[in-house]
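RESIDUES AND SHAPES:
===
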Amino acid sequence: MNEDRKALLERIRAMQAKAESEAASENEAMQAAAMAAKLMAKHEVTEQELDLIEGGAAGVTMERLKASTKTVHMAVRWAASGIEDMTETTGFFSKSKTLGREQLVFTGIETDAEMAIYLALMIRGAADRAWKSHAHGQHFRNRNKSRKSFMIGFGVRISERLRVLGRERRASRAPSGGTDLVIRKQDLIERHLSDIGLDITEPRKARRIEVDENYHHGRQAGDHINLSRPIEEGEGDTAAIKEATRG
């Protein structure tokens, strides 16, 4: 983040603080709030970017998607890297010692991590509905194997699409310091993980994909899912995300 951008963010934050201060008159508070809003609109500043200037890793959180069975849903597992890229979080799989079940953990700025879980839940539900529609009336030689292949295809395609949306999102922010924002987020995430003594730098093992007819059907189903709507709704309504991810 360059010094001019940092100075702008600090100025906006100061105006917001003045607007919320009990020491300011009603007129002063209104003027400060209006000026802060005007500068944010002019320079394309988000509340999230303002939160990041306060330093430290206090704004970083870890959100968990607990598996309903022993392992994380197959479609979500294969879509996880795309979810990370889209939401600018870091994800990893762990096993709950108390429940004996696997969980997918996303680490990032609170709103990003909540969005990651929101997307994972959406993908899980969409994949199950897509499989139910695909499997209706069909006879499979090995139903479990066919379902797994379908879910992998679905997850891989969703991951590809989320990566594209992530690139578009970052490109749209580029003129207003979007690259600096991503770097700052990653730095905070790494510091948070270091603070709690968690090392997830080891690369994930390569996974073998068995491409068959069900895999291709899964990819086709993944193409039909509207990803823009849940992303737009999530970014515009953090309360909705909290409600969807509760529990």
